[in-house]
Structures are given as structure tokens and as C-alpha cells.
Amino acid sequence: MLARTGTEQLLERMRSEAASAWSISVPASDLDGQSNADGHEVDFTTQDATRRTYRWAYRYDASARSLTRFAVAAGASPEPGAVLSGITAFSAKSYPATAIADAASPIYDPLFAGASVVPVSYALNDGSVAGNGFVEIAITGAGVSRSELLSTSIAPTQFTVVIEYTPTP
What we know:
Structural class: mainly beta
Helix content: 10-25%
Number of helices: 1
Strand order of the largest sheet: 1-2-3-4-5
Order of helices and strands: HEEEEEEEEEE
Radius of gyration: 17 Å
Largest sheet: 5 strands, antiparallel
Number of strands: 10
Distance between the termini: 40 Å
């Protein structure tokens, strides 16, 4: 029960952070400079009211079976924050925007079948890349296995979904 609650809270926090992030990315190297080819770290980049760029990094430590959230500001050491224990597997994988319309893609959505999706990406001043791509988070813990597809909500992307909606009278 604790693993399920912790996982749900973590994914809810990531969804919330995605809503205000300029970028969600799987960096090539983690906070320690080690290869992140396995996707053990995912970063969310945003700006504060003074336009200073900062980010949150979630890094999985397989030997400790934990996921730690770090606050990272330019020119400062990463500050560890909340830790979720009992995680047996974690990975983050990036996908271009076009993957949502590709039937061979693991993130394919039939809603976008035949859609012309233009991938957009641009570098932010901290070196992270923003745009209209997706990041899939997969997390496993005691009796819990969940995945979540995340994308930013505020970065300009040149890709907009318009849904016609008429509320029920």
C-alpha cells in the first residue's frame, strides 16, 4: 500500500511539474556526470519570476532502491529533497512528437493516426532542450508497476490539439 501511495504521489507531482515546465528531458549525463543511457534521471526545467532558469532532477539509485528529487540552480550544487524508497526499477525515455502518430511507436495514439506532426525543439539557456516531445516514465516498486507519458504544457511547440466540445445541457 505504501509503494502504491508513494508512486501515485510521485507521478502526480511529475504531472504537476510538467504543466509548468519549459522542458522535460532525459539528459545524456546525470547530475554526477555519469552516463544516463539507461534513463535513470529525468529533468524538468523552468524559470522563476525573475527569468532565472532552474530545474528539478529525479535520479534513481538502483543500489539504494530509491528515487531522489534534486533542486538544481545555475552555479549551485544540486540540493537533494524528497526521497521515495522501495523502488525496484525506474526509467525515463524520450520520444519525438512524431512518435504519437507512428503506429510502430510504443506511445502511438490512434487519435493522431494520419496526423502531420511537426517535431519542434529549441535549446534553453541552461543547455536543456524544450519542444513538443514526450517523456515516458516507468516506475516499479513492491507490487506496483506504472508508466506515465509526460509533455510540457507551456513551451511553444507549433503543435496544438483542438477538440470541439459541447457541454451537456
